Amino acid sequence: MKSNSEMTALITQSNYIPWKGYFDNIAFADVFVIYDEIQYTKRDWRNRNKVKSDACLKWLTIPDEVKGKFHQKINETKLNVKRISYVV
Fold it and tell me: 80 vs 86, which has greater pLDDT?
C-alpha cells in the first residue's frame, strides 16, 4: 500500500477507441489527466484507430477539421461533419 505522500499519476493525450492497456493504466493511477492543450497531430491516434474485422484490420477514422490549422491544440480540433459517412 502507498503512503499518503506517494501517488501515481497518468498524464496522457486523448485517443479514439483506447486499447485495453489504456484502461489498465487508468485503474492503476491515483490521478488521471488528459493532456489536450498541446498540438494536435494529424494522421495519428487522436482521430483514428485500427479495428479487427472478419477479414483484416481496418481503420476507423473520425473526420476532423485540420487543413491549414497546423498549430491547433487537441482541444481546439473540431469534427468535420460534412465528411462523415455511414456504412450499414
Answer: 80
Task: Find out whether 35 and 55 touch, Cβ atoms under 8 Å.
Answer: no
Which CA distances in Å does 74 have to 37, 44, 52? 6, 12, 26
pLDDT digits (tens, 9 = 90+) for 1-25: 566 689 999 999 888 888 888 899 9
d(Cα 65, Cα 1) in Å, to the nearest integer?
Answer: 46
Q: Count of CB atoms within 10 A of residue 34's CB? A: 13
Q: Is the separation of the CB atoms in 29 and 8 below 8 Å?
A: yes
